[in-house]
Amino acid sequence: MKLPELGDATVASLSRSRLTRLDRAICAFQKISDAGHQEEMASVATASTDALVFSRVLVFSVFNFVRQDEDAIKEALPDFVKTVCHGEHTYLYAQALFHALNLRRLFQEVQLYAVDTKNDSIARHVGLVLNGSPAFPQVTSAVASMLNAKSCTPGDINTLTKCYCPAAPGMPLPTAGSLAAPTMAAGNPPVDPTLIPPIELLRDPDLFSILISALFDPRKPVNPQHRGKYLAILAFAASVYDIPTDSADATNGGLPMDLETAVRTTSSITGKSVRRVLDFYDVTYAALDAAHTICHKHSSSSDLQADMRALCPHLTFPVVAACVLYWIEVALISTHLLSNSFTTSTPPWHLAVLDEIAFQHSLHRPKVFALLQQLFAAEFDLDALVELSLKKAIFDRCIFLLSLDYVIPIVKFARECLVSDRVDLSLIRHFSSEVVEIVDAPYSKQFLDEFLPIVVDQRVVDGFKKGDQTAPFSQFFDSVVHSEQFSHLSEALQTSVKERLEAWRV
Fold first, then answer.
1. For residue 203, how many other CB atoms are within 10 A of its CB?
2. pTM of this prediction?
């Protein structure tokens, strides 16, 4: 069938009609924005088509992120990053704002979404440029090469070592003269020789992951000739920072700064005089070095008991904790260490290390919990009783996390296990008994909504004997009934709690 040809007048008429509808839509969104409904608009892609509307949504979201807790931030982030990454103009505008305001978390979350979801290399380049990469082509080339290949080569590491930390560990710390000055292509204006590469170029989350993987993957031993340089770059990225020399807070934690361990330079990003503080470089390098030695020693063994006393002090460093956490994940899951060497009912000492990491670092608790979930879901070639003992040990680690105020994700996990019938009921009973001993009023409604369905489930309560085993539950139910949140629970849940309280009342 031949379609009729459209004349110029028809095309123009259709174009005007389409533009009219678009203008009306934008006008409507402006009116909605003027009415103060930015929260509802944050997840609407059309909000990014108008500069004024997008700016209002962006500012509103940023203020919310600053005030909200971690759970609320995680819930709101997906819609927010989608809106920001709707177009190149919105991405660049938002990233420039986040960089100027030093909102590193939002900057990195948006960049990770753009790179991972849209496979956009330009997004990564924007981040490098905002962090001062144009003045340092050698550093930029090495970092970009590692990020694109998702691995590092000795050549890239040598380049970064020469530019950032040419002095070997144990030797005098680098000075402004020893650090590499930037080079510019022919035809560009000369650069101040006191400039040194910005530390922000090393602080890409993916770059950290690449360095940690290169050092702490037991399946890929590091060449001893390059090991020290890998450790030096990782320690430098994790411990060194810059402060303005003209600010009132030009001290280290309020204490006089050791001028021996600081480099006065000029920021390539702001152009202002800054002082690069190297106070924690040596101790961070030493901790990474010791942890790497211990992990490499036990790459094929599940017995860490002999070196636990030596390892734990180094776990106070967040970067060391992240490295050891990655090593445990690979050692226990990817290399099937448990299937090959764990033949008794004694839990592996790796789980005790997870306890220490969770205790020391609140920001690592979600990662520890994610690893515990992987271990719980993994299939190992173990005897049934030994596997049950291992799963109980994993649940004990979850209970320990709950005692550290990481509550809702743990309770949700236990409830999911009960609903899906993928766990022995004895583990759920053990979990419930421990939790009622730990928690105390006042209870949040979210906690009660997740935990009460577990402890009133007939399959769970049938395993308890009335008396000493049920007394803690009776006290818990009694406190729930008299709490402010009880009236906000569903009628079915209120009835179940009252019935269970009456049945177990001593």
1. 15
2. 0.80
